[in-house]
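Please, structure for the following, as tokens.
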Amino acid sequence: MLFSYFWTINKNTTLNAIPKEIVLLLIPLSFMVLQPITERYKSKILKYYSYSIVLFVIYFLIRAIIRFFIFKDISFFFYHGEYDNDIGLVPKDLNAIHVSVFVAIAFFYFYTSSTNQIFNTIILIVLFGFIVLLSSKNIILVFIILILIHFFFFSKSGNKMRLRNIFLFLIIIGFVFSFGKIKERFQLEFQTNSDKSLSSNVIKGLPEGVHNVSIAEAWTNEKFTPNHFFPGTAFRVYQARLFFEFLNEEDIFWTGFGLNASYEKIEEKAKYYDVFQGNKKIEGYQKKNFHNQYIQVFAELGFLGFLLLLLLLFLNLKRAIKYKDFIHITFAVLMISVFLTESFLWRQRGVVFFTIFYCLFNSKEIKFNSKENK
């Protein structure tokens, strides 16, 4: 990111973005100078984090209940607010998808804990309900799969009949994706102009009568109009299309445009394709990033940056599986999945969360034998 300043197409934009991303350097350096973090301290940190998240969740649930009784609007219980209002479970600035990830880590801390079962059960119900209300379909799907994985492969009952559980797990997953309504939902997403989406919509509050762009149209249409509305998944396909066009048209394979420098190129394409440019109340599509961390890194930092990101994720998942630490596995899987729908590291809360937990889970505890200890 720092080196990209020397080849970026917009030096001011890149320079302004570096302070936001500097935690990628400072937090690992802090872990390097600290004493080795033992498993006991890791557990304590996760405990404090998880209980803090519970308080956070309770606050926003109470906030939603109070607002519902005042304004009589059920929308206060779902997703996040928009630019011109704050009608949502959490504010727009927090982002419902990001909050879903934060809450999911806390959920699995209590889910894997064996202390105070009744109290834990109450907390689990509250956290589970909160994640569902946040309405991030990607996170909910991964969240449910992680629960099934823990039940079949990590729980005491699951370890007794591992082969049977593998078979049952595959049957359940197959049943879920072949179930009539769910199968229809996937078909609608790919084949028709639906106002629903597998991922969260990027713009809300548009007037009635807009044309809902399908995935096929997002990938193939020569032109759009300001009346074309992109559901979440279709918009991400449209942004991926722009990225591949950039690869063909610009010399960015090895270096990328530079940190945060892709925005002006996205805006140029948005004007060319005549997508909705926004108004005084609603932000247009041309102001959005790629909504995909893999593509975002490749477009701005080139293939080498993309390779570094894959290496980070691979080593993280490998270590999690090696030590059979389920909360670490949860973190690794959530990061891989959320990177598919969000430019998570291009938001300060996202990069701080990722870097702290990455270092926490991957820091090595130095062990001494008795002679060395003496």
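The chain is about 65% helix and 0% strand. Strands lie at 211-212, 228-229.
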